Structure formats: structure tokens, C-alpha cells
Amino acid sequence: MDRFNASSAIAGSIHANVILQGVLGNAGWAYYSLGDYEKALVSFQQAEIQAKNLGATDNEILWLQSAGLSLYRLGDLKQAQSYYEEALRAADASHDAARKAVTDTSLGQLLLQLGQLDAAKARVDEALKTAQQIGDKASELDALFLQGQIAARTSNGADTERIFSQVYRDAAGTPSLKWETENAFADLYASRHDVRQAGLWYRRAIKTFETQRSSVQDEELRLPFFANGDELYRDYADFLIASHRSDEALQFLDGARARTLKEGLGESVQATQVQPETPSHTARRLNAVILFYSLGPQKSYLWAIDRNGTHLFVLPPEAEITARVKSYQADVLKSHDPLREGNSEAQWLYATLVAPAQALIPKESRVFVVTSGSLNDFNMEMLLKPGQSGSQEGAHYWIEDVSLSMASSIQLLSRLAPDKERTANKLLLIGDPVATGEGYPPLSNAASEVESVERYFPPGDRTILTQSAAVPVAYVDSHPEQYSYIHFVAHGTASSLRPLDSAIVLSPPHADPDNFKLYARDVIHRPLHARLVTISACYGSGLRNYDGEGLVGLSWAFLRAGAHQVIGAVWEVNDSSTPQLMEQMYHGLAEGEQPDQALHAAKLSMLHSQGVFRKPLYWAAFQLYTGS
Q1: Distance (Å, rounded) from C-alpha 404 to C-alpha 393?
Q2: Is the separation of the CB atoms in 445 and 575 below 8 Å?
């Protein structure tokens, strides 16, 4: 990737467009192999434009088909089909048999996903015939594997096993095809109720995948890799649940959560590790209920864990939940009043996501939520719980019943030490920066937020860096590892394509006026011991969801650096309401409340107000993320 990026920069600067289109496309393949389908799609689309302008038809077809693959993996089947069909038209017009075989196979896979078995079979038969005629072994192998998948759906006979065995013999040099074939064998044996063989092949597939993942050393490149194996983990979990081993499925899925974060915290996690405990032991020790979600294409799961045990509930497919989440969140961001309007999506989401486990969550419970998919950037506190007997009278937001925190995994939560009083509650506050004049206007209420926070700490226990002193290098120079509380009051930016480019916008240094951002990628390299980091800025939680990892941005970076808890925003925050929220929260902390209790009480004070700040737009933006 380093070489591709360097080549791309040089080729672009000297208008070497032939080289540029090749580099962009090859970078796309590297990103695709790493599971970063968003970046891959951008690279393929840019390469396709370059190839089209150059008249390089064969490469134009290749990058069209490759962009279609990325869209397919991102779940946009309609757009993927459009790309495949355009690539096929171009391949037919130019009599490019090799490109046609590859694209026919890709389109056949998509048609199989849509359940159009006859159309999928026609495509793959054509692809296999073409690949064999031109001697393209790689394309032949891909087509043969798809033929086996179709056979598995239409017949459970020996022919399916024969096809998979043939692919498996030749797939040794292609790890992704190897683990896909191993997983296909596992699915086949599971459909035959051969539990021993199915379990064996599922574990083989996961071992092959994990061997490849471990070969990726760069932390940022490793973040998206789990997308390659998400289906393997989901299929094995489904198998375990069907085998009445739901607790084992939970342990297995949880072990895959926040892998990059756990690996980054490896030394500190090992140093503080206690005896392994079951999820219910963790819930009992923390006096809490844990809700663990796993969203999937056919069905989703909720494990609710309390002090007495673990309970499994089956939920609707991910697409149905995601559509409701997006619809409700869009209403909130339009400053609607869901409680007064009786928002139906908020009620459906509560009935679906929480109500099945409602009996396990008494009023005033402490709840830790391990989320999945679209739930990662959604605040469940604003779900609407109905009144008695399901009536509208007495309906209220779920936040009025529980104190909610987000957890990366139960495994990390099990290492969460009880929060003890610290002898030195020192504050590092950086904010109210000088406006850069680059789209970041002055924050008119930043100074008042600084004043309201700092007054809860004695002068000798606080370091306040504002205006021209609030420059990025000041964060490192202040030795942030010595502080119990770190608070930022500034603009924030979040990047979806490069989440570690998310940044806190500070003052431009005199000597280097272009260097005014504290980036997430820089934060992770400075170890912290802070009890609480608060990012009082827009999009502090980030914009990018990684399969298995969750939302990655500034909040993740501070957890990765070692912060025990982080408060970040999942959307754009209001400059007028936020200082009030923070003042209330620090008042609670000063009174001895835990961070989750203090933030909870501060939100309730806004919710119970009579003004516009009662709406979730103003109090639900901030989430509390628990580290370890």
C-alpha cells in the first residue's frame, strides 16, 4: 500500500495516466483483499475513469467488474449488477473472453444471492466453459466453486462434494478461496446434520482466515480485515446455536469483537487480567445487565446477560432493523420530538431490540451494550418504551429507566476494574481554539464550557490550554498520561474512508499554521491512564463502522491509547446545549458519581426541561464508551 500510494502521487503529479490507472486499480485490489471495500470501490472507480479516458478497454472492463465486486460486498446488489452488466456489454463488444468469464461468474454469484438459481446456473456454466476454452485456471476455479454452491442449494448429493473437493485441491495458493471452500463444506455437512464433520470444517475455515489476518501487521490495514471472515463467524455461530450451544456461540462471537482494539491494548490487558469469568459473573461483579447484539442477513440475535445467567433471543434480519434505525435517526436529526409525536419507529425498535429481555432489566439498571452493525452509531437511550399495557400514556424514553454505556466486548468488560476514588483527580482541558478560517467558525460558547468545567478542579490540579495555547503539539507536551480527566472543547472532524484521520480541530501554531489538527492516528501512540476522556465536539465517535470492530474514530483512538472511558458524539452537537450538559455532568462527578451516572443525570436534566433541549437531538448525541 505504501508503494502504491507513493506511485499514485508521483504519477498524478506528472500526468502519467497509464501508470496512474494501473496503480489505482492495483491499490483497489489490495484494499479489497484487506476487506476495506469502501476504499477499494473508490480506487476501482477512479481507475475505471482513467482507463476509459485512455481507451484501455480491457482494463476498463476489469475495473468495472472489480467495482461491482466491492459494491456486492458492501450489500448494494442493485448497483453491483449494473456494473457487472456494463462490464459484460463491453467484454462482448471487444470479444474479451477472459474478462467475460470473470464477470459472468461474479454476476452468477449475485444472482445466487438473490435466489435466482436458474439464471445463476446459466451464467456460471457459460463462465466455466469460456475459462476452460482459454485455459484460465483461476477463473475456472472460481466458476467451479460457484457451481458447487448452486449444486448445494439444488441437490445434497455426492456431486456437490465432488465439486468442492476438486476446488479444495487446487485452492491451496488462494487462501480466501480455501477458507470459502472449507466453510462451504461445513455448511454442507451441517445441512446433513453431520455435527462432527460440520464443526471440523467450520474450525478449519476460521483457522485459515485467522492465519491470513495475523499476517497483516499494520494496525490500520488490519482494522477492516474481519469483513473477509464475518460470514465464517456468523455461520459457525448459527451452527452452534442450532446445536443448542448458544453460550458457546456467544463466547465465540465475543472473542471476535474489537480484535484490533484488544490486540492494541494487549500488554496492559494482560497485566490487569483476572481469572477468566463467565459473562454472568461479569454482570454480577459489575451489578449490571449486558446486552450483546449480533445482526445478520437472515436473522439477528440478542444475548441478555444478568447475574443469574445468559438468555438468547432471535431478532429480525439486519436490513429490517437498519432501515428502522436510519429512519428514526433521520427524524431525530431533523429536530423532531419523538415522545410527543409517538414515533412509531422508536416504539418498534424498543419492542424489537429491548422488550424481549425487558424482564431481566429492572428499572434503574446499569446496562452495558455490545452493539453490531447499524446499532454502533445509534443511541439506544432514545428508544420509546410504552406505558402500562402498551398504552401511549406513560410512554417514555428508555434512558429514564436505565443508565447505559457502550462496551466493545464482554471480554474487555470482564477486565473492567471497579472504579475507585483516585488521589489525584487532575484535569487537562484543551479547547476554545483560535478560528482557523478554513470552515471552522468560532465556537461562541466554548469559553463558557471551559469555565464551567475548570471550576470543578482546584487550580493546582488543572491544566487549561485555550486560544493560541490550544495547539496539537500541546497535547503531547502536557504529558496526558498523568491526568485522570481529559476534556476537549473544539470542532471535530470524522473520516469514513480513513477513520484514523478523524481529528480535533485546534489552533494553528504560529510556526506551522497548516498543522492545526490532533489526529486519531497520533492519539493512539500516546499511552493514557485517564479515568475519562470527553470529546466535546461533533462526530467524536466517528463515522466508520468496521465489521467486528465497531465504530472507529476519535473515541476508539482514546480507548486504544488506554483511556478507561470516553465520551464522544455520534452526530453534530449543538454549541448552546453542550456546555449545559457538560456543566451538569461535572457537577455529578464532583459529587462522587461514576461517569455513566453523571452523564445519565445530565441528560435527564435536559430531557426534563421545558425548552427545545428536551429533544433527543440535543442530549442523545453523546455516548459513553467503556474501555478496560
Answers
A1: 24
A2: yes
Range of lowest pLDDT (89-103, 163-177, 379-393, 536-550): 379-393
DSSP 542-589: -SEEETTTEEESHHHHHHHHT-SEEEEESSPPPTTHHHHHHHHHHHHH
Cα 251 to the chain's mean position, in Å?
19
CA distance 228 to 201: 17
Report pLDDT for 274: 42
- Which has the closest alpha carbon to 102: 74, 71, 63? 63
Are the C-beta atoms of 61 and 96 separated by less than 8 Å?
Answer: yes
Mean pLDDT of 482-501: 95
* 272 has a pLDDT exceeding 50: no
For 439-472, give the DSSP string: S----TTHHHHHHHHHTTS-GGGEEEEEETT--H
Q: What is the bridge-based pairing of β-strands 289-294 and 300-306?
A: antiparallel
CA 359/CA 180 separation, integer angstroms:
40
- In angstroms, the CA 305 to CA 288 distance is 9
Identity of residue 235? D
**What DSSP designation does 613 have?**
G
Q: Which has the closest alpha carbon to 381: 532, 577, 627, 602?
A: 602
Q: What is the distance between the alpha carbons of residues 555 and 536, in angstroms, rounded to a whole number?
A: 11
Cβ atoms within 10 Å, residue 234:
19
Asked if 188 and 181 count as a contact pair (C-beta separation under 8 A), the reply is no
Q: How far apart are CA 433 and CA 540, in angstroms?
A: 17
| Band of pLDDT at residue 267, cut at 50, 70 and 90 | very low
SS (H, E, C) 18-86: HHHHHHHHHHHHHHHHCCCHHHHHHHHHHHHHHHHHHCCHHHHHHHHHHHHHHHHHCCCHHHHHHHHHH
Closest CA to 292 of 273, 274, 305: 305
On the question of pLDDT at 313 being above 70, the answer is yes
Name which of 392, 381, 369 is nearest 606 in CA terms: 381
Which strand (E) or helix (H) includes residue 540? none
Cα–Cα distance measured from residue 522 to residue 518, given in angstroms and rounded to the nearest whole number: 7
Long-range contacts at 106-115 (CB < 8 A, ≥ 24 apart): 106/65, 106/68, 106/69, 106/72, 107/81, 108/143, 108/146, 108/150, 109/72, 109/146, 110/72, 110/77, 110/80, 110/81, 110/84, 112/146, 112/149, 112/150, 112/153, 113/72, 113/77, 114/77
* Residue 572 identity (one-letter amino acid): E
Instruction: Tell me the Cα Rg of the chain.
Output: 26
Q: Which three cell numbers stand for residue 585?
A: 455532568
- CA 303, CA 314: separation in Å to the nearest integer? 9
Which phi and psi (to 5°) does residue 101 adopt? -65, -45
Cell 457487472 locates to 84
Q: From CA 190, how far away is CA 141, in angstroms rounded?
A: 24
